[in-house]
Amino acid sequence: MEKIKVLTIFGTRPEAIKMAPLVKELESRKEIDSKVCVTAQHREMLDQVLNLFKIKPDYDLNIMKTKQSLTGITNRVLEGLEEVFIKEKPDMILVHGDTTTTFAGGLAAFYQQIKVGHVEAGLRTFDKYFPFPEEMNRKLTGALADLHFAPTTGSRDNLLREGVKESDIYVTGNTVIDAMEHTVENDYVFENEELNYIDFKNKKVIMITAHRRENWGEGIENICDALNKIVDENQDVELVYLVHLNPVVKDVVYRKLEGKKRIHLLPPLDTKETHNLMNRCFMVMTDSGGLQEEAPHLGKPVLVLRDVTERPEAVAAGTVKLVGTDIEVVVSEANNLIQIEEEYNKMSRAINPYGDGKASQRITDSILKYFKLSDKDFEAFK
């Protein structure tokens, strides 16, 4: 039987979470010779996801270095992938989203005239510096891609406005919803013992992440000051802040919040721990992109600690609200959800626009159709 070789490339934990169910789907198809290459742009956090989903990469570029620069990451990915491509000669590579690995992977494939499939394509803020460098990574990858797997109709429309042919775009839903089908358990016992002692039933537990480059400095300082006020003004609230390992973030957070009553500062958790914490918590405050998709799937309101988002569908649906990093605005919006049940219910009961758990299947079907190995009609996510 004729097979096509598909090489999936990722380098960070968020990419790995979203690509893992797709890797498993590719492996299940007899028409596909599936290969995996990780760049390890992030190392420890990436390995946690690989272990969870039992994925053993065929190639590991292991590029991560202390205080790595964007230029350094790009150079090491380009050089490492060139060797992999020459050896494997894939028919198509798949990259995800908006990381430096994604852009460099697409560029390396272009140099070898290899087809590029872009998973989670078409998200835009329309400001090349917000988020930085993610907005341009995603846009430049879109210029290199042959197939665009847009999670929503809004993402598809962005691509159409940029001149991408409609026949090259597939609306699939987001693969992160596929991943959560395998990670969330109602009777889950946390590996982090501190979480097992938190009273999720009687306290309003807020999960926080904040580490985006554009929030470094004043943004993180303001977020921490706002969190202090939220705890002081709401005795039934506890905070669980998953603190990024980067000293630019970690040093500020610990200086501002360490030792504060009802604030738990924890290192980043693995994927299963994170998803189950999200499932138990009251709401989420974050500057992350992925959590804007994951939390609504579990009925958790999200306050986004940014001024813009490349995921406007969640804002339109009412599951997510942009609040920026102004202290008074953050505190006011958080208090509305904590103190006013009607406001909370509006957001928690809104419909998540990001997927139905079948994105990986749709992506794989569309690849097979592209290479004329299937005549199955594509049914878009709506």
From TrEMBL:
Please give the InterPro entries that the UniProt record associates with this protein. UDP_GlcNAc_Epimerase_2_dom, WecB-like
Q: Which family does it belong to?
A: Belongs to the UDP-N-acetylglucosamine 2-epimerase family.
Give the enzyme's EC designation.
5.1.3.14
UDP-N-acetylglucosamine 2-epimerase domain segment(s): 24-367
According to the UniProt entry, the coiled-coil residues are none
Q: What is this protein called?
A: UDP-N-acetylglucosamine 2-epimerase (non-hydrolyzing)
Among its keywords, does the record have Isomerase? yes
